[in-house]
Amino acid sequence: MTTKRTSRTAAKSVPSPHPHVLVLHGPNLNLLGSREPKHYGLATLDDIDRALASRGKTAGAHVETFQHNHEGALIERIHQAARDCVDFIVINPAGYTHTSVALRDALAATAIPFVEVHLSNIYARESFRHHSYFSDLAVGVVSGLGAHGYELALEYALRHLQNRTSHGSQKTEKTH
Ligand code: DQA
Asked: Which of 32, 90, 129, 150 to mutate for ligand 1's pocket (most ligand atoms within 8 Å of CB)?
């Protein structure tokens, strides 16, 4: 029994042979490593991004990372992700978690599945952090596990995309 793969077309529903995952970091996360370490730990954004890119490479996936301090730039990046046929998003919206209808709407508009990540446990902090504009749209939420949370979210994304690939009728056809 052999397996024949169809090549990816422009159609969003056709999975890529190389899963494409976008990791988005919101405002102030560029300061990780020195920013309030009791909440956010000592890993820098660069440490986190390098670990994710390396895991992606091992899994044969394309993992891109993007941080910005401006809401509009994050929204534009999500629009771009739809044009690029990104398969899955891991996002830490940071402060925008609690304020941004516009960022939520961008994710809803593209309908790319996503996991919401927070380094700190937002439910163990000030009450204004307990509400997220993203959680009800997210596939899942990881909060309070530090930088490890990003790795778990990426692991989930890779597993999810792998399952989709092995079960997806458009991607894999069995021939005899
Ligand atoms: C955060 C939690 C948010 O409340 C905060 O504004 C952040 C980071 C986290 O990763 O724990 O900037 O998203």
From this structure: 129
